[in-house]
Amino acid sequence: MDVSGPRVRDDMTVEVALSVMAGARVGYLLLCDEDEQCTGALTRAQLTAVRDSPAYTDRIRVRDVLGAFPPDRAPGALTVAR
């Protein structure tokens, strides 16, 4: 996969991921597993929607967000080719 952009581990919390995005001035993050393989991408819109939901807790990890939005309904979805 030839995708450029900030790469983060999928065990990062939503709040930290939003901070990384703000610091890097980007609208998305590429998620990597423990083997440094890209497993997906999340947009600021997706993370903000999760953070603003009534079910949000500070323990939610970005890997948990990947399954929260079906691909055709993800706000601000970013498709990552494999």
Tell me briefly what this model is:
With 82 residues, the chain is an alpha+beta fold. Helices cover 29% and strands 17% of the residues. The chain has 3 helices and 3 strands.
Per-chain topology:
Elements: E1 7-9, H1 14-24, E2 28-32, E3 38-43, H2 44-51, H3 62-66
Parallel strand pairs: 1-2
Antiparallel strand pairs: 2-3
How many angstroms does the end-to-end distance come to? 6 Å
The main pleated sheet reads as: 3 strands, mixed
Number of strands: 3
Helix coverage percent: 25-40%
Number of DSSP helical runs: 3
Portion in beta strands = 15-25%
Helix-strand topology string: EHEEHH
Low-confidence parts lasting 5 or more residues at pLDDT below 50? 70-82
Q: How is the largest sheet built, in terms of strand order?
A: 1-2-3
What structural class is derived from the secondary structure elements? alpha+beta
Mean pLDDT: 79
Radius of gyration, CA atoms, in whole angstroms = 12 Å
Envelope shape: globular
